[in-house]
Amino acid sequence: QVQLQESGPGLVKPSETLSLTCTVSGGSINSYYWTWIRQPPGKGLEWIGDVFNSGTTNYNASLKSRLTISIDTSKKVFSLNLKSVTAADTAVYYCARGVVGITGTQFDYWGQGSLVTVSS
Amino acid sequence: DVQMTQSPSSLSASVGDRVTITCRASQTISSYLNWYQQKPGKAPKLLIYGASSLRSGVPSRFRGSRSGTDFTLTITSVDPEDFATYYCQQSYAAPPYTFGQGTRVEMK
């Protein structure tokens, strides 16, 4: 059974860097798009970006200038770094597995989510 | 970016009711449309992919369909565990992957 687990600080100060890690267990890390999605409190889902096992990344244009996503396939972990955060970055951050099929990409496994609050 | 518009934003239903949720894409997305269910405090769960394919293990009362750029999620007979928020997501013109704003299904 594939499992994803987010880890990282729950509180980040404004202007600092938000860093989260997602650990993958129970399955291969190869041939999937390892994805970050966030959800501000009481709001909908926003795709942040992803990384393939090769290290190739895709980023949401609205976050691209502040965003780095990386992967360590040997440890089966991938990471999110979002710099210069503001209160607008307060959200539950989910990691998810993106699987590509003949009808596009679905997010079939998700972590439980990590609430990150940006506040001084 | 492709905009996904869900309707209604919320609805009330009784156990056993038939419920329909609609998602409209701002441009053609073929059948590259997925549906997720999210319960409070939990991560979303994939229900349907490719507009109409049921994920393994998902009850058959969930059905998805497509008509042009309009997509429908139907719950044929609402079960108590189905009260949740539902999101559509497109992957045709992606990245970025975009989600609808969500439809909350509440108990009447």
How many helices of chain A does DSSP assign?
A: 0
Mean of residue pLDDT of chain B? 97
Subunit organisation of the chains: heterodimer
Q: What's the average pLDDT of chain A? A: 97
Describe this structure in words.
The complex is a heterodimer of chains A (120) and B (108). Chain A has no helices and 11 strands. With 120 residues, chain A is mostly beta strands. In chain A, the strands form 2 sheets. In chain A, strands 2, 4, 5, 6, 9, 10 and 11 form a 7-stranded mixed sheet that branches. The model of chain A has no long low-confidence stretch (mean pLDDT 97). Chain B has no helices and 11 strands. In chain B, strands 2, 4, 5, 6, 9, 10 and 11 form a 7-stranded mixed sheet that branches. The N and C termini of chain B lie far apart (36 Å). Classes of the chains: A mainly beta (120), B mainly beta (108). At the A-B interface, β5, β9 and β10 of A face β4, β5, β9 and β10 of B.
Which structural traits does this protein have?
heterodimer; A: 120 residues; mainly beta; seven-stranded mixed β-sheet; 11 strands; 0% helix; 56% strand; globular; B: 108 residues; four-stranded antiparallel β-sheet
Describe the secondary structure blueprint for this structure.
The complex is a heterodimer of chains A (120) and B (108).
Chain A: E1 3-7, E2 11-12, E3 18-25, E4 33-39, E5 46-52, E6 57-59, E7 67-72, E8 77-82, E9 91-101, E10 104-110, E11 114-118
Parallel strand pairs in A: 2-11
Antiparallel strand pairs in A: 1-3, 3-8, 4-5, 4-9, 5-6, 7-8, 9-10, 9-11
Chain B: E1 4-7, E2 10-13, E3 19-25, E4 33-38, E5 45-49, E6 53-54, E7 62-67, E8 70-75, E9 85-90, E10 98-99, E11 103-107
Parallel strand pairs in B: 2-11
Antiparallel strand pairs in B: 1-3, 3-8, 4-5, 4-9, 5-6, 7-8, 9-10, 9-11
